[in-house]
Amino acid sequence: MNHLASQDPAIYTAIECEVDRQNYGLELIASENFVSKSILQAQGSVFTNKYAEGLPGRRYYGGCEFADTVEDIARDRAKELFQCDWVNVQPHSGASANAAVYLSCLKPGDTFLGLDLAHGGHLTHGSPVNFSGIWFHAEYYGVEKNGLINMDHVREKARSVKPKLISIGASAYSRDFDYQAFRSIADEVGALLWMDMAHPAGLIAARVLNDPLPHAHIVTTTTHKTLRGPRGGMILIGKDAENPFGKVAPKSGRVRRMSELLDSAVFPGMQGGPLVHVIAAKAVAFNEALKPNFVQYARQVQKNSSVMADSFMDRGYHVISGGTDNHLILVDLRSKNITGKDAEIALQSAHITVNKNMVPFDDKSPFVTSGIRLGTAALTTRGFMESDIREVVELIDRVLTAPTDETVQARVINEVRALCEVHPLYDFVIA
Catalytic positions, please? Predict the structure, then answer.
């Protein structure tokens, strides 16, 4: 990156500092991971220069022959990875993929049912400050006091509000989902079923969690998080079919398939030109996830997450739902007399990155919160094993026990660095 260093030293320095932060800090944000050097190279390629509105073979620009190759490869690999009929790899993010689902399935003001954000749901699943809650009528199901979703209560809610769409998926729910039960509820009330698997996508691809594709009409995901690809989105259909709305193609008058509605919702409905360089990086990530060692990785993510939950509980912390099935845990800190906000700040000072997070039935605002959310995907990518995770929890506990003690933080910083040097991330420096 010598050219960048000479042309724009301010940006070069920020990148240099970020490489150092990632190399020598513990990354525990559940929605983050580390990509391979191959993915970095693909995303930084000359495909960043190319406009390619439309789909392979049906572009609105010339010069797309190699963009077509890249997108076809990405789609084929994604279909193989998730064993599905159809995918669209163009969404710029999980949020834009979700927006395409709403555009395809609902009209403004229509009712849909999703997991309450305050109980671990996602902003795009009906939050009143998000387009999903502004444009549509959102109803919610939640978790019980034990931190688990009660499917009988979901059924009761669905019968009561008669949604046109039911969403599954979460940003802070540590358990697997019963997709068959959700589909039964959706069929009973005449709703479409949509799964947003952004968080567990990698674990689903590795078949270590339940697969939503045989049950949900539509599945969306991000391509980062546990899938360990570039930041982006994707939409999938397990088995394509005619859409249930009877929408017809403008010229032929034939009923359009669900895949056609979603393709049109992505472009021109939600986006302009796709990010071909990111699609190239997605293709690389899918290829990596198709390799046998990715299954080993996913299993280790689960093991590490389970050990982390147990280690926190052994130290007297309240882990929501009493454990985890996936890559994340949610810790209620009220018994430790520290807020999520203060915990995040204290841990960041010790080079341990987490995020404050609301817990079910929280009595604090989203800007303060009573909890923290942690994930093991990124540390597992670095090669952290169960014994390392126990050491990480011990370091976190020391910081949170004395959150303003700079001496404790300084000692922890040294131990964090030593752990990181045992498990190096990127074996290059920006120089």
Answer: 51, 53, 196, 222, 225, 231
